[in-house]
Design brief:
Blueprint: H1 13-20, H2 29-40, H3 50-74
């Protein structure tokens, strides 16, 4: 039993909430549900398939990355 080798990490509903509430996004519950609805057409996060969860995680990661890049562009560099 010990090591878990060769396992693929599957994103979960907890992953969605964690990303939505991260420092860069700070989404409200309603905002996350709007993203889920826009990407999957479903109102309930619990009813998402694994493929749909992965799609929403991808979109949230893109939003997070975009937010981070935008903030870095606005931060002046000091010598």
């Amino acid at each position: 039993m010990g090591k878990r080798t060769g396992q693929v990490h599957h994103a979960t509903v907890r992953t969605l909430w964690g990303l939505a509430k991260c420092e860069e996004l700070q989404m409200t519950d309603e905002e996350l549900h709007l993203v889920v609805m826009a990407q999957t057409g479903k109102e309930s996060i619990r009813k998402l398939t694994q493929k749909e969860i992965s799609r929403v995680v991808y979109v949230l990661l893109q939003m997070k990355d975009s937010s981070r890049r935008g903030r870095e562009a606005r931060t002046p560099m000091c010598d």
